[in-house]
Amino acid sequence: MARRAQPPPPPSSSVPPELRRRLERCLLNECDIDPLILRLRFLRRWGSRQAARSLEQELLPLF
């Protein structure tokens, strides 16, 4: 028997609209770090430790 998808919960009235808009703007600006992590792994695998270290230093402000 297939399960039906549940409808999304109603919006919470406890979250002020301005805070919700601010969060939505932040999410639009979010960068996808997955390709960068994959690049680091590739660089390490191929012995490019200095290039990997440089990329790690650029990522530090994101965390």
Task: Give a topology summary.
Blueprint: H1 17-29, H2 34-45, H3 49-59
Uncertain segments: none
What Rg do the Cα atoms give?
A: 20 Å
The geometry reads as elongated
| Percent range of helical residues | 55-70%
Distance N to C terminus = 44 Å
Main sheet attributes: strand count, strand direction, barrel closure: none
Helix/strand structural class: mainly alpha
Mean pLDDT over the full residue set: 75
Number of helices: 3
- How many beta-strand segments? 0
In short:
The chain has 63 residues and is mainly alpha-helical. 57% of the residues lie in helices and 0% in strands. It has 3 helices and no strands.
Describe the fold and architecture:
It is built from three helices and no strands. It has a domain at 33-63. With 63 residues, it is mostly helical. Helix 2 (34-45) packs antiparallel against helix 3.
Annotation keywords:
0% strand, 63 residues, mainly alpha
